[in-house]
Amino acid sequence: MSSPRPSCRSPHRPVWRLLSALLLAVGLHVPAFAFEAGGPVWPDTSLARLQAYALVQTLNAELLSNPSATLTLDRWCASHRLAPADSKIVAGRVRDADKPADAAIREWLGAGPQEPVAYRRVRLACGGRVLSEADNWYRPALLTPEMNRQLETTDAAFGRVVRPLGFSRSTLSAKLLWQPLPDGWEMGAPIPAGTGGLDVPPFLLEHRAVLKRPDGQAFSVVVETYTREILAFPSPP
């Protein structure tokens, strides 16, 4: 298991802002995206591919530097106006899903072969847009009775339920599932462009992580897959 990553809470300019400043500095206009009913349609241009890459990497960096994916998505949803004001992430449980913890999950959790390990699969949505699908294995014995009750009987997001624990997050892997830019683009390789809309796949980013209590005990393993809906924000005014 990898060691916890250091906190990155110091003020910094997101990748997206740096890219926009660079484009403006060299005289390129940052265009608004076209939207259709049901979601955005990005133009298949070199600039749009750069923008998409910068945005996905910005979210990736924010997830890596914060313990709660739920709260990070709360902020992403609000700052990109994906839903009406004051909307929060809600977890829609997939009730018929069941994935017993295998040996690797139990090792990451530090759970013995006889210890109960619960499982939840949820779709994290903001204003009807599913931003992430997540598998979550957790140790009920390390949570409070009230936390276990909420996790068993409600659709509350896991990160919100266990927030009182003051937990930390250790990333096991962070994988980009979509590469809108060709290999060598930063060294001058031509970036493809088409005449229609950019073909954005359903899933863009995958994270695997372990959540730990302040005493260092692991209590949850999550596998989170982030959808193209993270890019479904309106153009700036």
Description of the structure:
The chain is α+β, with helices and mostly antiparallel strands. It has one domain (15-231): Chorismate lyase. The chain has six helices and eight strands, in the order αββααβαββααβββ. Helix 1 runs antiparallel to helix 2 (46-64). The longest helix has 19 residues, at 46-64.
Strand-helix topology:
Blueprint: H1 15-25, E1 34-36, E2 39-41, H2 46-64, H3 69-79, E3 90-93, H4 103-109, E4 118-126, E5 129-138, H5 145-153, H6 158-161, E6 168-176, E7 203-212, E8 218-227
Antiparallel strand pairs: 1-2, 3-4, 4-5, 5-8, 6-7, 7-8
List keywords for this structure.
two-stranded antiparallel ribbon; alpha+beta
Order of helices and strands: HEEHHEHEEHHEEE
Instruction: Count helical runs.
Output: 6
Number of strands: 8
Q: What's the rounded overall pLDDT mean?
A: 83
Give the % helix: 25-40%
Low-confidence stretches: 1-16, 18-37
Q: Please report which band the strand proportion falls in: under 5%, 5-15%, 15-25%, 25-35%, 35-45% or over 45%.
A: 15-25%
Q: What is the annotated CATH architecture?
A: 3-Layer(aba) Sandwich
For CATH, the homologous superfamily is named as: Chorismate lyase-like
Widest sheet: strand order? 3-4-5-8-7-6
Top CATH class: Alpha Beta
Number of separate domains:
1
Class based on secondary structure composition and strand pairing: alpha+beta
Largest sheet, strands/sense/barrel: 6 strands, antiparallel
Distance between the termini: 44 Å
Q: How would you sum up the global shape?
A: elongated
